[in-house]
């Protein structure tokens, strides 16, 4: 049981270290995320997994591109955006289907970039994310305390016999 308590303490220390590291590199995380998003945009017409990821992201968050819809022109042709950027998108639509986007008349196409929407989503749910993290921490600390109490109780029982 002492080994179990020590293991929980080690896990707790690792989680705390990862949390501190994540907080300290959040700016680098943002630029790395943008870079990865750009890579998957470049592969949109080539890799089905990237198409599915972008279609899911853009339809769920009602966004288009990383910062705006016109970023897609470089990857899917000038004046085109993935159908998932458009208001009339259905999840049953043909994979890789495109729709027209006119910057002068942007109606029918999601205008917000997905990076901004993702950031907002995390910000909106940060309290929930932190609550889950604190809940897990509480369970780990309780596990350490209970394991130590049980080990102490067993040791006392052994001494009595």
From TrEMBL:
It comes from the Eukaryota. The keyword Membrane applies. It is a multi-pass membrane protein. One of its GO terms (cellular component) is plasma membrane. The keyword Membrane applies. Keywords: Membrane, Transmembrane, Transmembrane helix. The chain crosses the membrane at residues 6-25, 126-154. InterPro entries: Tetraspanin/Peripherin, Tetraspanin_EC2_sf. Its main location: membrane. It is found in: Membrane. It holds the Pfam family Tetraspanin. PANTHER family: TETRASPANIN. This is Tetraspanin. It comes from Clastoptera arizonana (Arizona spittle bug).
